[in-house]
Design goal:
Largest sheet: 6 strands, mixed
Helix content: 40-55%
Distance between the termini: 65 Å
Radius of gyration: 21 Å
Strand order of the largest sheet: 3-4-2-1-6-5
Order of helices and strands: HHEEEEEEHHHHHHHHHHH
Number of domains: 2
Number of strands: 6
Strand content: 5-15%
Number of helices: 13
Structural class: alpha+beta
Amino acid sequence: MKTTPSLIALCVFALMPVSTEKITVQDAVRVREFYRLADRIQDQIWHDWSKIPAPLLLVTPQAEYLTHLEKMPEGFADAGDGFFVRPRQFSTNFEATFPAFGPPDVIVAGEPQNTASKTSVPWLMVLMHEHFHQLQGAQPDLYKKIEELGLSHGDETGMWMLTFPFPYEKPEVTASFAAMRDSLLAALAESDDKKFKLLAAEYSKKRKSFFMLLAPEDRKYFNFQLWKEGIARYTQIKSAEAAANYEPSAEFAGLADYESFASVGEKARAATLSELKQIKLAEAKRTAVYSFGAAEGLLLDRLRPDWKKQYFERPLTLEGFFEN
């Protein structure tokens, strides 16, 4: 058999010694705090969320540390204290969830300073966002249902979820999105219940108008992204608010970048709504679904307080919640 450069590289990687480097004290403290926090708040937000496995792979510049996975995958060595280690393979700025070693889904995250989170407490909230993706992924036949949307067009890598050619820059789509967005924000800002219901009804009409502009595949894609990523951001907000009175461990509170959970909880909702207010669909593209879908979740909390009981019964779309 002909020896190729790629084959040589693969063989060299296979012969590399498995790292046995210990996780740093600071990183171990952060990871332990994630599980401690999740144990305190997750079932307040989603029913039986605590029953979902939450394996995590922490990516550092030199190595990756895996924990809370029942079976150690090939290529890892026992690093002690419940961690397994291997040389780094993923990017250090990752904040994602996927079946890296087959089911169940694994949270893959870099250290706070190397990610968009920057510091430890916001990083924990992003881990709660990613942990919610584990709850989504644990639903029966979810990946089969996603495939049945017919949007992958043969892409088995899952990258279509990021690169789908949605008409973000189409003038009538951007104009309708802006009108829908403004209507959503107006409803959320209304404190009077009677006026709120009128504004929510108006929002539902504008939402329907927006989706009527879209081709069938575009409609399915945007609905799917709002259901998946938008409600994950909503869950991140609700996690921050639920953690406002959380008492961290002394080790976590002693980290150099620590800030109070109350402070982060107070800012979470306003930060997302401010982000949404400034979003232009043609520029933000897919990332618009995070703040927009989160705002829809917040609206549903007032409009249909029991909506989360049906969220997994109506997978891959929020459309039914806004029908009269």
